[in-house]
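Hello, quick one for you while I still have it in my head. A protein chain has come my way and I'm curious about its shape. Can you walk me through what the tokens say about the fold? No rush at all, and the record is pasted right below.
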Amino acid sequence: MEGSNEAPHDIKNPYIPVPERLRRVIEKAYTPEVVSIGPLHHGKESLQAMEEHKKRYLQDFIRRTRVGLEDYMKIIKDQEGKIRSCYAETIKFSSDDFDIWPNTRLLENQLPFFDLEDLFDPDKIIGRRSGRRSTFCQLSVIKLSRVFFKYLMHIEGADGNLDKMCGYKAEHFVDFCRNLYLQLPLERQAKGKLKTLNTPSITELHRAGVKFRVGSAKNLLDIQFNDGILEIPKLTISDETEPTVRNLLAFEQCHCMENYMNDYVVIMDCFVNTAKDVELLVKHGIVENRLCDSSGGSTLINNLADGVIVELNDFYFATLCEDLNKYCKTSWHKWKANLRQNYCNTPWATLSIAAAVLLLVLTLIQAVCSVVSVLQSKKIH
């Protein structure tokens, strides 16, 4: 992880290829293996098996909505220039090649979200001339996308306020997925400066007496530390996590002004160094690990940090890092935690310690009484 002076790409072209430095880390995280969506990977031989399935899905969609194919084609024709302008590379499709297909999470496998919304807009498809409007209005790209990402990508934030999400103008499905994770727009928060990124791991925080609690907020960035309690929103780790987060990171680095997911990955990489860190997070309900073991979970989190950019002068969790470091440097917190974790970790151990302390106090009282008695005897004589 290192700083970078790279300038963000032109925001007028949100559909740009993933930067080569990110692709080198893990190629398959950015390349579709089953179906192509959009023009960047269209026509690849390895994806041809799904082409016939696409046609069947289209026929089924038209049958369920009872809207003619010509109506959909007119929408695409009207938007063709706007669609082409979304891609940084020249699209070699002819006008007759533009099709709309199912969604995905890969940055290089996207179609403009506004075009998909048009296909679900009854005013643009059937207008007021048809009695089929009420049936068509039940469809919603926002609602369908929300259900997809919630159950297939295990995104906790998908249960957020639907009205708020409907008001968010997503560029494409990767942008929409990022919104589900972060619950955008966020309240403006001043970022801080760090001299160095040296944050204690979960195990080190545990040894210093920090208590852990799963956060109630659905926003992944809402990590709070108050009165020795660290609250972290729940995170589900599965086989889908790495490709999903990597494409979100690539999108942020190429297109977004605020690198929220980038900073989240950085802080989680600081928290998790070993399988023990993951085990502690799982124990407290903060992480749901669907991988084979805790070691796989720690490896995944650490691998996500490969290629990310750390801006020490503009880090979202700067204040959190400072507070955690300050807490861990207080000797009293370490002594208290050591006593509780190593000597008072069971009721019997606690009872034994209490009995020993009581015995020590009684012995001390007896010694003091003996000294007082001797002194009084000397005064009498």
